[in-house]
Amino acid sequence: MDIVNIAEDILSKAVKRKPESAEVYIIEESSIAIEVKEQKVDSFQSAASRGFALRVLLGNKLGFSYTSDNSTPSIDRLIKEAFENAENNESDIYISFAKPSQGASVKRLYDDKLKGVGEKEKIERGMKLERAALQYDKRIKNIRHACYEDSEYNRVLVNSNGVKYFYTDTVCSTSIMLVAEENGNSETGWEFDYNRFYDSLKIDEVGIEASKKAIGMLGAKRINTCRIPVILDPKVSCDFIGILSSSLSADSVQKGKSMLSDKLNSEIASPILNLIDDGTLDGGIGSAPSDGEGTPARRTPMIEKGYLKAFLHNIYTANKWKTTSTGNGIRGGFKGLPGVGITNLFVEKGSISREALIKGIDKGLFITEAMGVHTANPISGDFSIGVAGHMIENGEISFPVRGVVMAGNILELMKGVEAVADDLRFFGRIGSPSIKISEVVISGS
User: Fold this and answer.
1) Exposure of 29 by Cβ count < 10 A (0-12 exposed, 13-18 middle, 19+ buried)?
2) What is the four-CA torsion angle of 111, 115, 120, 122, rounded to 10 degrees?
3) Is residue 268 exposed (0-12), middle (13-18) or buried (19+ Cβ within 10 Å)?
4) What is the pLDDT of residues 342-374, one digit of tens each?
5) Residue 327 Cα to chain centre, angstroms
6) Residue 1's pLDDT is what?
7) Under 8 Å CB-to-CB from 337, ≥6 apart: which residues?
């Protein structure tokens, strides 16, 4: 029996017990992870899993249960536990399940070819990645890991209101971490690529780019404390957006845990900054026809020309504010309830190249690494982190810099955005181009 039929069978059995509403969510995953070391397979993991989750409403009381076993006794127990949990739970008038509506049209989520790729070919991809890095420069002395991974997912959601979604998606990735050494100094380099489609995945480019990063940081030194413009590499920008993302959740706002609680429709960033959450993005890792509650995915402008325009909602937070869900009811898996989360959150790219940003700076810092961004205060936005990168002098990249600190406030940082480049790149569900900040304090020697 396929998972759609299983879901409908569980729903039918649950509905016979006459809840106000019932919902079944099932996810199947098959994955492979290969790690190569010295042109040999160092680790090979293949896994498959399937999980079943049931939510029921008795009056305004929510019951939830899950299992990974779809035998008849296990499903009977799943239903029994969900109803018992509901009976023992407190009433909450804001809980409800999705109503039927047209799903979003989302392209390029599934690669038919991936099933036909053999293990030998996937292993070769990991070996090719390692070779590309080692052959780039003799200063690359150690490959800590060179990995290939892929996953395939099948997901179904049905509820007693008439909502029914089934879709499949794939994702594959390569990643490498290595060490460059010269004159007693050593630096690490890391790079990755992921794609919904196997043939579009980068191999040689990932190994070469990781090598360039490590070699480029050899001989890094500290600089004197100064107030200078900086350019944030896309990965560093994404780190900061990741901290900001929790404050964009209506759940965080309603619980008083957001730095943006009283700032809706206020100017919180530079007029050139636009931030979007888009669950319909072509090929996006967070894209899907619907969210984890059955609400159609959508595109939601969060910051427009510096103004905060929206918060992200699931059905529960939307009911609290008498509004509608933005399609951001996200499930971390079948074992948890849907919360509020991002789909594909990104800074809209500009029209200037990163090279042009660099050329426009007489003295500044191009930041490629930020250590400890996760320690930033998610409510105040204050941060103090270690950073590394390259000094910019007379419009050109000069020497590598390490051992310095950047401190400030995330909202002040966003207000200081002076230019946005065109090199938008995603790191998981968060994306950003390189961003120029007009002035920050860098604490060094």
Assistant:
1) middle
2) 30
3) buried
4) 999 999 999 999 999 999 999 999 999 999 888
5) 16
6) 58
7) 55, 64, 331
Residues of the chain with pLDDT under 70: 1
Can you read off the two tokens belonging to residue 91? 């009433």
CA pair distance 29, 178, nearest whole angstrom:
30
| Partners of residue 154 on adjacent β-strands | 28, 168
Global pTM value: 0.95
For residue 275, the surrounding DSSP H or E stretch is strand 275-278
Q: Which residue has the tokens 């407190």?
A: 90
Note whether 173 and 157 are within 8 A (CB).
no
CA distances to 320, 405, 406, 437 from 440, in Å: 39, 11, 7, 7
CATH 3.30.2290.10 domain range(s) in the chain? 3-214
Give the number of other Cβ atoms within 10 Å of residue 279's Cβ.
28
CATH of segment(s) 3-214: 3.30.2290.10
Could you report the per-residue pLDDT of 384-443, keeping only the tens digit for each? 999 999 999 999 999 999 999 999 999 999 999 999 999 999 999 999 999 999 999 999
Give strand pairing partners of 249: 312
Full strand arrangement of the beta sheet holding 299-304: 307-308, 299-304, 275-278, 345-347, 430-432, 425-427
